[in-house]
Design goal:
- The protein is 53% helix and 9% strand.
- It is an alpha/beta fold.
- Strands 1-8-7-3-4-5-6-2 form an eight-stranded mixed sheet, covered by helices on one side.
- Helix 1 packs parallel to helix 12, helix 2 runs antiparallel to helix 12 and helix 5 packs across helix 9.
- It is globular and about 70 Å long.
Length: 451
């Protein structure tokens, strides 16, 4: 493992070069013009050449866990960091993290829109769907439309639930981009300034480094700096490698959509999105002629009916549960030992503070991309997040996530943007409802509901 860690310095750039070479090759293909058997061959090639060789990101994940954990222990033992926040402050402001680039690009575009009162008024008087239709043809918005198109080309696959292939990307739902621009236009110039945000991050990082220098002797400082350097590099690599995963998943989504369109054209299924009710092997077996079930439409209707029953179940499945005998027979998927979510004795919810700061505001609970995404300084509350949520962050005053860890994507990006954030809050969505008034202290990891 240590040898693998030492080789990451060369393995990560090599992985990036190989990924970019293959991605450009597959990006040049026009899936809409390819017959199903060629699409299947291309997918198999993606599996063989890339998806099954995803070793470097996995090794780097182990590297991050070990060195970040060591860094946290050193901060607590050597620097007296009882609040366990020093390691977060030391890692923020690293720069060069691909996950933050989409947000910065939209923030700069929103600043340009605000500088033109006529265009700003045009944006604020229309819905996101109307803007997606009207902006490309509006004479005063030609440069804005070009920037949005460039954004979609670069980051169109970075969407909420981006690793769920059945979810539409921003290519199919560009109105999401315009909703984010509307949110950003409503922000103050200071909050929208990318350089101000970067300066704030550098200040937090500089104060943390000064504290470490004052606390440690030279021998300990040398060891500490080695661990810190490894942790910073690992976190940066982790986020950038995740962006590579996003890009290839997005390309696979386009490939599968093309397969679905081909099956609709041949009148095999009724809707191209129905392909996501089938397993991949069922699709490929049908194309190869080795399918066990050839009536794909009937199979899809069966899956739809089963999914409807699952969706309409009154209770959520527990995070942890026991099963007995055959998993799908006579098992409730409920953790009978779990206590109901309640406030602690001090009247607070407790989680893991991962980006320091305090915030007071109204809770905006977001479950899916279909929820209202209009944000203006609220506290974002969610069960979980993925990299596609990042563009929501600048328009909120704080972030509360029910699941996740100190190394989750929410934590890393919130630190880079200087937004107070708490993750791993048990029972958060059971206690906090949309519209609740909250006080959060991300340094202490506590949340209080105000009357």
């Amino acid at each position: 493992m240590l040898l693998h860690f030492a080789a990451l310095r060369w393995r990560v750039p090599a992985f990036d070069r190989n990924f970019n070479r293959l991605y450009q090759e597959w990006q040049a293909l026009d899936f809409s013009r390819m017959p199903p058997h060629e699409l299947m061959r291309t997918y198999r090639e993606m599996e063989r050449k890339l998806l099954r060789k995803w070793k470097t990101p996995i090794i780097n994940d182990f590297h991050v866990m070990i060195f970040y954990g060591t860094l946290k222990a050193c901060c607590q033992k050597w620097c007296g960091d009882d609040k366990a926040t020093l390691q977060n402050n030391l890692i923020c402001g690293e720069g060069g993290i691909a996950s933050t680039e989409p947000t910065r690009m939209l923030m700069k575009l929103a600043t340009e829109i605000k500088s033109n009162p006529q265009v700003q008024e045009f944006f604020l008087k229309r819905s996101p769907a109307e803007l997606a239709t009207e902006v490309p043809d509006h004479p005063a918005c030609r440069e804005i439309a070009e920037t949005v198109n460039r954004y979609l080309q670069l980051y169109g696959f970075r969407c909420i639930n981006e690793l769920k292939l059945e979810e539409p990307s921003l290519h199919e739902t560009p109105e999401f981009v315009y909703q984010m621009l509307i949110n950003y236009i409503g922000m103050s110039a200071e909050l929208l300034d990318v350089e101000t945000m970067a300066a704030r991050e550098r200040k937090i990082r500089g104060e943390a480094e000064a504290l470490v220098t004052a606390k440690l002797t030279l021998p300990r400082r040398l060891l500490f700096n080695f661990v810190l350097k490894q942790a910073r590099r690992g976190v940066k690599n982790r986020e950038n490698l995740r962006f590579a995963r996003t890009r290839i998943y997005g390309r696979i989504r386009q490939l599968l959509n093309a397969v679905g369109q081909s099956l609709v054209k041949e009148q095999i299924i009724q809707d191209d999105q129905d392909i996501y009710y089938l397993t991949m092997e069922e699709v490929w077996d049908y194309i190869k002629g080795t399918a066990v079930t050839t009536d794909l439409s009937a199979l899809i209707e069966l899956r739809k009916a089963e999914f409807t029953r699952y969706r309409d179940e009154p209770a959520d499945i527990s995070d942890h549960f026991d099963t007995y005998g055959m998993a799908y027979n006579r098992n409730a998927f409920v953790n009978h030992l779990a206590a109901e979510a309640t406030l602690c004795e001090d009247g607070l919810l407790h989680g893991i503070g991962c980006s320091p700061g305090c915030a007071t505001g109204t809770a905006r609970v977001v479950h899916s991309p279909k929820d209202n995404m209009r944000l203006n300084g609220e506290i974002l509350v969610a069960s979980r997040t993925d990299p596609g949520w990042v563009v929501l962050y600048p328009s909120v005053s704080g972030i509360l996530i029910e699941r996740g860890s100190i190394l989750s994507h929410s934590a890393i990006v919130a630190r880079e943007m200087g937004i107070p954030a708490i993750v791993g809050i048990p029972g958060l969505l059971d206690v906090v409802k949309d519209g609740s008034h909250l006080e959060m202290d991300a340094t202490a990891g506590t949340v209080k509901q105000c009357q």
